[in-house]
């Protein structure tokens, strides 16, 4: 579905991504774990052009996202062309970033109506069904500032789904939430996994990684240093760095 | 006392006529300045170097020279360049240009005050720059900018009195004419001052309301 090849990203002198190779397959849920500063958020943001790779290439269903062919030459895509890929790749942010001047439903239909040019009635019908899915049908006409953090994040998830993306990226979706609100967001995400949505999730929720991930990718210092299915990842005989990382969650978030 | 009332009654119609012209000057200049200011403000955040430079120079020149000089310049110098203007037209142009530079900075600050996450959320839906600006950023930026725009409009209203110098028959000019003819300086200029105060008052109330509304929304947004 989405493939990254030898992605590098430097900020000034600082190389944050050091040649990352990554792939997510259709219907798969990949959780990216790693200590802070390991580059996992940068990697995720790269997949949506919120950070532009310094080198390497990315492919959505086999099509290069960074270059296009012209007369047999590989030329860099104009930033305007990125939007065709962004439409297919949803993003859920740590800070929700709902549009405060719009109601919940308006937030959700904004992309479909103004970017996909969908008929408004159609977008509303689908938007309402998404609101039902995330359990917020009664908040249809509410403004974001009147919602709790957990509710805002569920609206943000519905907003990204409204574009009917091929894949949705989650950037620490529960990190800004009060502990008692984390569960409602994670359960929506688990439901989406059941429905076969392709997801890449950066999180610190070990429980979610264990329950919902098909595969866990561990990043450290700008590289993916380990990949394993959850049973294996949380089991014995894992690399030292992974063990050390997990120890910090022992008795805390884990289990 | 009765003489004072008589004076007020006598001078009021002429001053009222001037006040109408003051309102016209202010409203028309404000509308033009809002349009020009928005584009200059957008230019001041443009990544295009040339556009950024041109808009920055515009703001610098306008803010760095007195309004009085600008008005006189438009009225007396433009004709030398082949542009003949009535005093009223020159007043409108001078005031609009002056106000647009201040509004440009207000728009720029308003746009900067919209959190970066809003742009990112818009981009991640596949919006291009102009769509994201139109649908997501500007509505929030303009909302943030309304109180300072109101304050600037109050200044514009009072600054319009400078158009008297280029013989626009607005409130101040009417006052000067009557005072020169009657020598009743105290009565007339007190009336002029009061009339400016009355004209400014509704805008002032509006600014207070907008500021309160803004505070209220920030408070509810920060609760999370």
TrEMBL record, chain A:
InterPro entries for the chain: AAA+_ATPase, ABC_ATPase_HisP-typ, ABC_transporter-like_ATP-bd, ABC_transporter-like_CS, MetN_ABC_transporter-like, P-loop_NTPase
Lineage: Bacteria, Bacillati, Bacillota, Bacilli, Bacillales
Record has NADP as a keyword: no
CDD domains named among the record's database cross-references: ABC_HisP_GlnQ
SUPFAM superfamilies (UniProt xref): P-loop containing nucleoside triphosphate hydrolases
Domain ABC transporter, chain residue ranges per copy: 2-246
Species assigned in the record: Seinonella peptonophila
UniProt keyword Transport present: yes
UniProt keyword annotations, A-Z: ATP-binding, Nucleotide-binding, Transport
Highest rank taxon of the organism: Bacteria
MF annotations from Gene Ontology: ABC-type amino acid transporter activity; ATP binding; ATP hydrolysis activity
Name this protein carries in UniProt: Amino acid ABC transporter ATP-binding protein, PAAT family
Automatic annotation (TrEMBL), chain B:
Domain ABC transmembrane type-1 as annotated: residue spans: 19-207
Keyword Cytoplasm found: no
Molecular function per GO: transmembrane transporter activity
Compartment(s): Cell membrane
GO CC annotation terms, alphabetical: ATP-binding cassette (ABC) transporter complex
Residue spans crossing the bilayer: 20-42, 54-78, 188-210
UniProt xrefs under CDD domains: TM_PBP2 (cd06261)
UniProt KW keywords: Amino-acid transport, Cell membrane, Membrane, Transmembrane, Transmembrane helix, Transport
Record carries keyword Transmembrane helix: yes
Membrane topology: Multi-pass membrane protein
Gene Ontology biological-process entries: amino acid transport
Designated name of the protein: Amino acid ABC transporter membrane protein, PAAT family
Organism field: Seinonella peptonophila
């Amino acid at each position: 579905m989405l493939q990254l090849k030898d992605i590098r990203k430097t900020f000034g002198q600082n190389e944050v991504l050091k040649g990352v190779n990554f792939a997510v397959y259709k219907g798969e849920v990949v959780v990216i774990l790693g200590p802070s500063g390991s580059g996992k958020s940068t990697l995720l943001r790269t997949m949506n052009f919120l950070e532009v790779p310094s080198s390497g290439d990315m492919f959505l269903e086999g099509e290069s996202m960074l270059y296009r062919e012209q007369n047999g030459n590989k030329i860099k895509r104009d930033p305007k062309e990125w939007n065709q890929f962004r439409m297919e790749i949803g993003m859920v942010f740590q800070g929700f970033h709902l549009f405060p001047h719009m109601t919940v439903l308006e937030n959700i239909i904004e992309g479909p109506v103004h970017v996909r040019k969908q008929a408004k009635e159609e977008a509303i019908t689908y938007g309402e069904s998404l609101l039902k899915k995330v359990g917020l049908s009664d908040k249809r006409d509410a403004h974001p500032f009147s919602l709790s953090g957990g509710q805002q994040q569920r609206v943000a998830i519905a907003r990204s789904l409204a574009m009917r993306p091929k894949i949705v990226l989650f950037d620490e979706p529960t990190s800004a939430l009060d502990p008692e609100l984390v569960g409602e967001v994670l359960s929506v995400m688990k439901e989406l996994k059941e429905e076969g949505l392709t997801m890449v999730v950066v999180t610190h929720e070990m429980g979610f990684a264990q329950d919902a991930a098909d595969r866990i990718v561990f990043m450290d210092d700008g590289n993916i240093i380990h990949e394993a299915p959850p049973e294996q990842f949380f089991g014995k005989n894992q690399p030292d760095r992974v063990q050390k990382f997990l120890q910090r969650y022992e008795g805390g978030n884990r289990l | 006392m009765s003489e004072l009332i008589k004076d007020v009654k006598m001078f009021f119609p002429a001053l009222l006529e001037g006040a109408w012209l003051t309102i016209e000057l202010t409203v028309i200049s404000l509308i033009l300045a809002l349009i020009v200011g928005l584009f200059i403000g957008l230019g001041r955040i443009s990544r295009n170097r040339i556009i950024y430079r041109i808009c920055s120079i515009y703001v610098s020149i306008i803010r760095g020279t007195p309004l009085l000089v600008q008005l006189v310049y438009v009225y007396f110098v433009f004709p030398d360049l082949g542009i003949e203007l009535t005093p009223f037209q020159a007043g409108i142009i001078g005031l609009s240009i002056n106000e647009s530079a201040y509004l440009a900075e207000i728009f720029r600050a308003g746009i900067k005050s919209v959190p970066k996450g809003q742009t990112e959320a818009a981009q991640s839906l596949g919006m291009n720059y102009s769509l994201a600006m139109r649908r997501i950023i500007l509505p929030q930026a303009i909302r943030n900018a309304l109180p300072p725009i109101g304050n600037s409009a109050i200044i514009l209203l009072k600054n319009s009195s400078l158009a008297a110098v280029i013989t626009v028959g607005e409130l101040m000019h009417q006052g000067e004419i009557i005072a020169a003819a009657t020598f009743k300086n105290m009565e007339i200029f007190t009336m002029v001052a009061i009339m400016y105060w009355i004209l400014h008052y509704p805008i002032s109330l509006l600014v207070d309301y907008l500021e309160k509304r803004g505070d209220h929304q920030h408070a509810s947004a920060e609760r999370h």
